[in-house]
Amino acid sequence: MFEAVLLTVITAATPLLIAALGELVVERSGVLNLGVEGMMIMGAVVGFAIANLTGSGALGVIAAIGAGMAMSALFGFLVLVLVANQVATGLALTILGLGLSGMIGEAFIGVPGLRLPELYIPGLSDIPFIGPVFFQQDAIVYLGFALVIAVTYVLFRTRAGLILRSVGDNHGSAHALGYSVIKIRFMAVLFGGACAGLAGAYMSLAYTPQWVENMTAGRGWIALALVVFASWLPLRVVIGAYLFGAVSVLNLHAQALGLGIPSQFLSSLPYIATIAVLVLISANRRLTLVNTPACLGKPFVPDR
Questions:
Q1: Cα angle at 168 between 242 and 160, to 5 degrees?
Q2: pLDDT (tens digit, 9 = 90+) per residue, 144-184?
Q3: In this structure, is residue 301 part of a structural domain?
Q4: Domain membership flag for residue 303
Q5: What angle do CA 15, 18, 23 make, to 5 degrees?
Q6: Which of 56, 64, 183, 284 would you call most buried, defined as having the most Cβ atoms within 10 angstroms of its Cβ?
């Protein structure tokens, strides 16, 4: 029983973890992208469509990443080049993604999905409990943890990470030192879009291998909240993602145990938890300011 619960928590937490990591890098550069939900849903529908048409899950994942990057490139052009309002543009991106995904996915409703294969490591995968949990997941689960290590290392152990954080903390000083603020932020936005697209691909090719309209069900918004919950630190994103993943699968296991708790209440728990976390963080001003990029959401126009 515990093994089954842990496996479902891993699958529920993985898309949150990947999407939140991408948004963390975006926000560290000083850009606030509220379009994560739209990029995720586009990744989900494009990944499912390409995997279904080609019979290749790998091509589906690549296409999903491309779809997320295309959406993020549109966002980046609007807010970084045309200096559009970041909040309004992010919301518009989500609305666009939800509508466009519904149109693209109409032909794939009810079509059997293609599930990403689980990796099998001889010897390790056969160990009771440990094998299925740690050594028998699909590639995206392991990629999620690799991203945590890579993002942590790059942000806090490399010159590129230092430059990225300096742009997010003081874009004026970074520009005065000769760094291209727009270029750096645009690259960060593209990375965030790639992660959101990958998270969407996981939703339609691994979590529930089928296409259902609006299947991300607000996970993009939860990913945004996770970045704040984690105080913009990658390792804390892992903790937050698995906590929220555990809450989101509570519904399924509570019904299986026959606890008699209304399913509607259990389904709303991830969003109640999101609101509660944001309220608690907002109530503590010192906690709110910890690691918050000073230029987050502030537009930058060179030489003005």
A1: 85
A2: 999 999 999 999 999 999 999 999 999 999 999 999 999 99
A3: no
A4: no
A5: 120
A6: 64
Q: What is the DSSP letter of 114?
A: -
SS3 203: helix
DSSP conformation class of 81: I
* pLDDT tens profile 6-34: 888 899 999 999 999 999 999 999 999 99
Domain annotation covers residue 239 = yes
DSSP characters over 255-301: HHTT----HHHHHHHHHHHHHHHHHHHHH-HHHHHTT--TTTT----
* CATH assignment of the domain containing 104: 1.10.3470
CA-wise closest residue to 196 among 74, 109, 79: 74
Summarised one tens digit per residue, pLDDT across range 172-226 is 999 999 999 999 999 999 999 999 999 999 999 999 899 999 999 899 999 999 9
CB within 8 A of 21, min separation 6: which ones? Answer: 144, 147, 148, 151, 195, 234, 237
Q: What is d(CA 212, CA 13) in angstroms, rounded to the nearest whole number?
A: 19
Cα distance between residue 266 and residue 275, in whole Å: 15
Alpha-carbon torsion (223, 243, 60, 187), positive or negative: positive
Tell me the pLDDT tens digit for each residue of 56-95.
999 999 999 999 999 999 999 999 999 999 999 999 999 9
